[in-house]
Amino acid sequence: MPRKKIEPTRNALMEINTNETVHKKEIPAICRRIRYYRELLGIEQKELGARLNVVGNAVSNWENGRARPDINLLPDLCDVLGITLYELFDIDDPLLRHTKREQYLLSRYRNLSDSNKYLVDNLINSMERLGMVSEIQDITEITLFDKPLAAGIGDPTEFDDTGEPLFLYNSVLTKKADCAFCVNGNSMEPTYSDGDIVLVQRFPRCSNPKPNDIGAFIVGNELYVKEYQKDGLYSHNKNFAPMHFSDNERVYFIGKVIGVVGEDDIASQEDVDKYFLMHEND
Hints:
Layout: H1 10-23, H2 29-41, H3 45-52, H4 58-63, H5 74-81, H6 85-88, H7 100-110, H8 114-129, E1 139-145, E2 163-169, E3 179-182, E4 197-202, E5 214-219, E6 222-229, E7 232-234, E8 251-260, H9 269-278
Parallel strand pairs: 1-3
Antiparallel strand pairs: 1-2, 3-4, 4-8, 5-6, 5-8, 6-7
């Protein structure tokens, strides 16, 4: 008697199909892209492997998803295939599409009048001419005083000499400074030399001088940079005698000398122009 043929049930078929799906390995995008661009280029797997100096069936393994190229090979792989890393991984190149902010700015630009568009175009042109970068180092502007205080001033906090602006790159030191003076003479050598520009933190932002502090002082109508001691003002050059004062003599404390301006502290004119162009609407 012939055996009865048993048809697989619906559930059995579903189970078989499910198992087949599970065991069927999906090929990663990078592997599929290697095959796509290799075939688009019209070269064989062996030729691509030879150009990349890889052995055996490495390219075949990549394209079938059995392996992936070493990360160090990716630049050379892209170079041989004539594509970018974005194309290899099948992701969007941010340089070829607009961000949400760029789309927002573009929509605003389109709504401007022709005259205002012209102004925006000129601003962009100016920024490009200055070599504008996305980040510019912050700059501090202080006054470099150029002559001693006039006689007769009564309050050192009202020190108001003529001077010129000095633009310095921001640092822990320069951000503390309120003004600067040029050292005249060699009485403070070797600490400060003739021609050095010293940074001064003005009184009362700084405390009263303590022994051994170096400060800027006014005696009569002369400006001095000296070391403070309780009995007078001292030079670091031993050839200069200490300055002692009677109770009737007027000595004013301008502020503490907190450092000397180095060449790298002074902002270039190009960076100053960039900085003020970036902050002209602040």
